[in-house]
Design goal:
By secondary structure, the protein is mostly helical. The chain has helices at about 20-55, 65-70, 85-100, 120-135; strands at about 5, 10. It has one domain (about 35-140). The relative contact order is 0.15.
């Protein structure tokens, strides 16, 4: 087994060194970084919504995203992050975020897959949610 440590991405080639080239390594690092950015932005957005709608930020130790989403249902979260988008973000958290933060890299497992996830849907969900939050909170105040 060959190990390559590049920045925050530990790439295990499983004796398939020929698959590791600068472009592949760059894509893996990019995907790992996207997982981090999507996670940080989602947490910040949910914390911001708690602060705006509930005037408090509660720090959940387990299922933080799910608990916050459930808590915000009575305050109109469904009009900012649609239910199917909430589910997609929760699936992302369970599938990618948790494994990346606990060193069981799901991004690294892309090495053995024919198709990679580039997290475009999650990025679009967050961009749209931020726009909807702006339209709901800021625009009426202008």
């Amino acid at each position: 087994m060959h190990y390559f440590y590049l920045g925050v991405t530990l790439i295990v080639g499983n004796d398939e060194v020929e698959k590791l080239n600068p472009a592949t390594i760059s894509l893996l690092r990019n995907s790992h970084y996207r997982v981090y950015l999507i996670s940080a932005l989602t947490e910040s957005l949910l914390d911001c919504m708690q602060l705006i709608f509930l005037q408090t930020i509660k720090d959940y130790k387990k299922n933080k995203w799910g608990n916050i989403m459930e808590q915000l249902k009575s305050h109109g979260i469904d009009s900012i992050i649609f239910p199917e988008e909430q589910q997609k973000l929760l699936t992302f958290k369970d599938s990618y975020r948790t494994s990346e933060l606990h060193k069981f890299s799901k991004v690294r497992s892309f090495m053995s897959k024919d198709q990679w996830d580039h997290f475009q849907e999650e990025e679009d969900i967050l961009a749209n949610a931020l726009e909807r939050l702006y339209l709901k909170i800021v625009l009426p105040a202008i």
